[in-house]
Every structure is written in C-alpha cells, then in structure tokens.
Automatic annotation (TrEMBL):
Higher taxonomy: Bacteria, Bacillati, Bacillota, Bacilli, Lactobacillales
GO process terms (BP): phosphatidylethanolamine biosynthetic process
Top-level taxon: Bacteria
Coiled-coil ranges from the UniProt annotation: none
Protein name: phosphatidylserine decarboxylase
Alphabetical list of NCBIfam families matching this protein: PS_decarb
Cofactor(s) named in the record: pyruvate
EC number: 4.1.1.65
Keyword Phosphoprotein: no
C-alpha cells in the first residue's frame, strides 16, 4: 500500500442551486417537496424514457467522462447510459485475498467508530444505530472503522462484493432522498434519512462486515441483484440509477487496517480518489471461516 493516491478537498464550495436548497428558507421549503417519493418517481419515469437521451452528450462533456473505458452500446435512455458497463480490463483487480479492494469508483474517507457508535462525516456526527436501523446491530462495530465511498457523476456506478463470504442479513430502510454532496452532509443527517440498503456479510478474510448503499436526491435508486446466499470477491452486488450515491463499508475492531494515506487525507480534510478494485487496506490476520 505504498502508492500515492490523488485527492480532492472536502469543500463547501457547492453549486448555487444546492446553496439555495439547503441554506435559504425558501429553498428548504421547495426541498421538502423535491425529496418526497412522488417527485422522485416522476423524475425516474423521464430518465427511463427515450426523451432523456438528449441529456447524454452534455453529461459526458460536463463530467469529462472517459468513454473508452466503457462497453460500446446504443443507449435507450439517460438511465441506461448512467448504468453503463465498464470494460473488463478498465479496472485492474487485485487477486491477493487479504487486501481490501474498493467496491466501486468513489471519493473515499475513513472514520473510527467509537464506543457510542458515532462517526463524523464533514463536521457532522452520525449515529450508527440510526444508520443501521438497529441499536443491537450497531454494537457489533464498536472500535471498528467506517469507510465511506462517495460516488460522483463521473464515476462508474456499479458496486461489488469485496470478498468471498456468506450473506447473513439484508434489510431495506425507507427514507427520503437528500443529496450526498458535502453541503447536505453539513446541514442534514443524510446518512440516517436517506433510503438505504444494509447487507451484513460474514467474509472469509475480513470478518463480519456491513455494506450499506445510500440513495440520493431525486432518483438515486439502489438496485441490488443478490440479497442472500454466498458471494465472491468482485462479484457484482448492484448499481445505482441516476443521482449522487454512497457506499459505506463497516469493519469490526482488529480486522483490517485501512491505508494510512487515506486516513491521513481524511484528517487533512481531503477525499481520496479510488477506482473499483483498487487496494484501500489489508486484513490484520486471517478470519475464522
């Protein structure tokens, strides 16, 4: 784990529209309506229609997407484009089983989970019991770490299992769709209010982990393809439809060490840029099978 990562600052320099929605009284009034299910469903209908294809060209240009990394196809809608598949050789995958791979493309931060099951994300404290919707379940991660993978529009929006293992539990937690951009994490406890899915997995090399997918403003739909049975390292777990999204990995105490560069970047108020499959940590020792 000696490779130097690229970073971006965790910043409050958000768009004018987000500043209006979260920091203006009138904006917050409109936001209450925007984050409710009927409007998100209506947006989903449009984004799944052929009319939305006109958005694709500008989206590619605005986000400087490297389309040569993706499989060529004719897109039926903007959502079809947003869920585009990566070429197999576009993301090198480490087969060293005791190394922790990133489950997706993302901007990463890492936080310790203290005895009160609270961790800090952009100057805000989040209660782990609320995140998992279970006080007893949250106690399993006392002394562990929370690794937060924030996906942005330029990222590949599919996510994967990080190890061989058995799915012990899966739960859908209803919520409302707030943006996961930094301005929202500063003003609203988005990780406890957004719709999310929690999967508890007994992994072979990293112990019991929780993998949490969090939806976001407008559509932000979570599409998991496997909620039970066994899983394999780099097996696809699911994907996000359009909308900013987040994947959170919870590790128990004394099971893994996250790359110290990522930890230091977080302390320096920076997010670390990673790609799916890139090594972000390693097992402290072999876990019981």
């Amino acid at each position: 784990m000696d490779k130097q990562f690229k970073t971006i600052p965790i910043t409050e320099n958000d768009s004018r529209s987000l500043n209006f929605l979260y920091k203006n009284r009138l904006g917050r009034f409109f936001l209450k309506g925007m984050i409710q299910a009927p409007l998100t469903k209506l947006a989903g209908v449009y984004l799944n229609s052929s009319f939305s294809k006109s958005m694709i060209k500008n989206f590619i240009k605005k986000n400087n997407l490297q389309m040569e990394d993706y499989q060529k196809t004719t897109y039926r809608s903007f959502n079809h484009f947003f869920m585009r598949e990566i070429k197999p050789d576009a993301r090198p995958l480490s087969e060293t089983v005791n190394l922790v791979p990133a489950p997706c493309d993302a901007k990463v931060t890492v936080y310790p989970i203290n005895e009160q099951s609270i961790f800090r994300v952009k100057h805000s404290d989040y209660n782990l019991s609320e995140l998992l919707d279970s006080k007893s379940l949250a106690e399993s991660w006392h002394g562990g770490s929370a690794v937060i993978f924030r996906l942005t529009p330029d990222d590949y929006h599919h996510y994967y299992f990080i190890d061989e293992g058995k799915i012990l539990e899966h739960r859908d937690i209803a919520g409302i769709f707030h943006t996961v951009q930094p301005i929202a994490t500063h003003n609203e406890p988005v990780f406890s209010r957004n719709a999310r899915e929690v999967t508890i997995i007994k992994t072979k090399h990293f112990g019991k982990i929780a993998q949490i997918e969090v939806g976001a403003l407008m559509v932000g739909k979570i599409k998991n393809v496997k909620n039970s049975g066994t899983c394999q390292r780099f097996e696809k777990k699911g994907w996000f439809e359009f909308g900013g999204s987040t994947v959170i990995l919870l590790f128990q105490k004394d099971t893994v060490t996250i790359d110290p560069e990522i930890s230091q970047n977080t302390k320096n108020n920076q997010e670390t840029i990673v790609k799916f499959g890139q090594v972000v940590g390693q097992a402290i020792g072999e876990m019981d099978e």
